[in-house]
Amino acid sequence: MDHKQAQDDFSDYVDGTLAESARAELDQHLAVCIQCRTELAKFRQTLGSLGRLKQHAPPTLLTDVKQQIYRRSRGRFFAPRWKLFGRIPFEWISLATIIAMLVYYLAMIHGSPTGVRPAP
Amino acid sequence: MSLAERLLIGRLRDRDPSAFEEIVRRYGDKVFNLVYRMLGNRHEAEDITQEVFITVFKTVETFRGEAKFSTWLLRIAANQSKNRIKYLSRRPTDGGEVDEAVPAPAGTPGPIAHAQIAGPDTLLEAAELESLMQEAIASLDEEHRLLVILRDVEELSYQEIGEITGLPEGTIKSRLHRARMEIKEVLDRHTK
């Protein structure tokens, strides 16, 4: 294993996703190669520094977003909605219509012909 | 997606103001950190973070719950950051504008929070390191930058990164390794 091959495996090695055999091979190389050991230490240090990069959102974020939403929706976004008419339930209306038509059809076919007089 | 998360999304769809506040409180830092690291400019990051939450509230009806809510949210943040980078790159006067040592506003925890309890020297070193790290991140192209931020700054799993970027795991790993090595080289050059 040369230096490049060893360093190509650094990410998987550090993430713990390197296959067992490749890990053993890299460990053997690291045991005898001070250059790769140094590079690995720097690599870990880089990842550690990245992990400490935390920026917090400004404390006014919530107020700012709320103001934007109120302004853009002219106050309608969070206005109380009457739930019954908040959304027309088209799927239920369609289903009820189909059932009503089916019932009517069955009634027409199987219903008794009461009140119908034969033509003279 | 957990039951608590489902209920929260349901309340958000009903435009419950308390659900809206909970979402901003819970994910505000995460979104801001991602956007800030992508753009390197606090003012732009504040603007985009607001836009991300506005987009989330406007489009929450389209969230189908196939991925975690946080993943969906971060995908929106990543896309909006990339769009802003493209927009800024077309405006040469604003394109290269990157914050120097990132002073946090009063009342906000500082850049590298761990250093703040130490003395001024440590604080200065932390600010310098933060500035250097941001410079190194900014030297990457936007795709590599996003992967490093998602994995090493936000500490997401490869599966979550795949859901956000739409990339297969193998591609993520190889690009991430290249990006990490580039950052390491930038740091090496500065510390020599």
Describe the protein:
The complex is a heterodimer of chains A (120) and B (192). Helix content of chain A is 68%, strand content 0%. By secondary structure, chain A is mainly alpha-helical. Chain A has 2 domains: 49 residues, no CATH class; 50 residues, no CATH class. The radius of gyration of chain A is 37 Å and the shape is elongated. The termini of chain A are far apart. In chain B, helix 3 crosses helix 4, helix 6 crosses helix 9 and helix 7 packs across helix 9. About 4% of the residues of chain B have low confidence. In chain B, 72% of the residues lie in helices and 0% in strands. Chain B has 2 domains: 92 residues, RNA polymerase sigma factor, region 2, helix turn helix motif (Rna Polymerase Sigma Factor, Chain: A); 76 residues, Arc Repressor Mutant, subunit A. The chains are: A mainly alpha (120), B mainly alpha (192). The interface between A and B is large, with 33 and 47 residues.
The gist of it:
The complex is a heterodimer of chains A (120) and B (192). With 120 residues, chain A is mainly alpha-helical.
Give the number of helices of chain A: 7
User: What value does the Rg of chain A take, in angstroms?
Assistant: 37 Å
What are the segments of chain B in which pLDDT stays under 50 over at least 5 consecutive residues? 101-108
Basic shape of chain B: globular
The largest contact between protein chains, plus residue counts on each side, is:
A-B, 33 and 47 residues
CATH fold-level topology of the largest domain in chain B: Rna Polymerase Sigma Factor, Chain: A
What is the helical fraction of chain A, as a range of percent? 55-70%
Give the oligomeric state of the chains in this entry, treating copies of one chain as homo and distinct chains as hetero.
heterodimer
Largest sheet of chain B: none
Measured as a percent range, the helix fraction of chain B is: over 70%
